[in-house]
Design brief:
14% strand, 15 strands, 417 residues, alpha/beta, globular
Amino acid sequence: MSSYKSEFMRTMEERGFLHQLSNAEGLDELCANETVTAYIGFDCTATSLHVGSLVQIMMLHWFQKTGHRPITLMGSGTTRVGDPTGKDESRKVLTDEDIENNKNGIKQVFEKFLTFGEGPSDAMMMDNADWLLKLNYMDFLRDVGRYFSVNQMIQRDSVRLRLEREQHLSFLEFNYMLLQGYDYLEIHRRTGCRLQMGGSDQWSNILSGVDLGRRLADKELFALTTPLLTTASGAKMGKTAAGAVWLNADMLSPYDYWQFWRNTEDEDVEKFLKLFTILPMDEIRGLAALEGAGINEAKKVLATEATALLHGREEAEKAAETARKAFEEGENAAGLPTIEIAATELAEGLGILNAFVTAGLCTSNGEVRRNIKGGAVRINDEAEQDHTRTITKADLTDDGVVKLSLGKKKHVLVKPV
């Protein structure tokens, strides 16, 4: 039985979101008695967020669902500096145009999880460029910089690890924690925000803002972070052998997104159902109790529910049905990922190694060879053991495509145009 009084904190605890809290009792009391405003920042470093950001997005979702007001902070200001946290080298400097393009790509995902509007618990979107780009450097150093201890800053992991490895850390990046701390203070002044949330790697940066709030606004601000999320085998969440698991549909299809969740390791199913779906806890416990072949059914539920949140129920059901046809019936399901190639390539003969790399099923010719040797490569559902094999017009099915398969779960259709 949870000791928390507020619905938000109880939800965070039972679903596994809680890791570090600056004042758990004080935050719980606040959430139990007031409509609280909280924010999470997202730097604009790519045109889409990936699954690694989904824990934070789901936390904002539950914050709103339990009656509070979430803020998504677009970091187009801080992106110009670059967060050194977890990085071995300086982040590439982006142009203003790149940052604006990335921001516009990132923004679209939040409407899938949050309700924006003017009501007391409706979500807001802010951009720290609105105040950071207007700062007077001398005033900022005098009014804010004096509260930051260099002694403490160089002890923080993001800085210390770079220095120990004798890796370059620019003065630009060194300023990042000052700017993030100032963001919290500025958002509090503008909206009354009392809580900043983020991943555990952001703990020290968030505490900088808590400290500034106490010193410059005479107000207790709160910090909450989530655990570092890895899979049962130790892989970082959101990264696969094929690359990042993007949230924007134009960068990763709903079908491939569904497949990512379907391929969850057995030990992670319950944890992921709690974090990445909105299913009731009783239903999650029932699914987690399944054993043997039943665990695969739980994975399908996870895949469909997670995909429905991001891409809509219709796309999720379509992806589930496509997978069922492809895997259970062996059909050339039209919904499978498709790549187009020039018809002349098939006329001349497309090498199997090139085909599987082009389709994104393998990352190198060597990887294709290893999978052929291991019996994992199929063309039109027929095992292939010859790495010199070429794919020609004769391989086209009645649907006018060639089906390439790696193992039982990865399939791509090749369509000549």
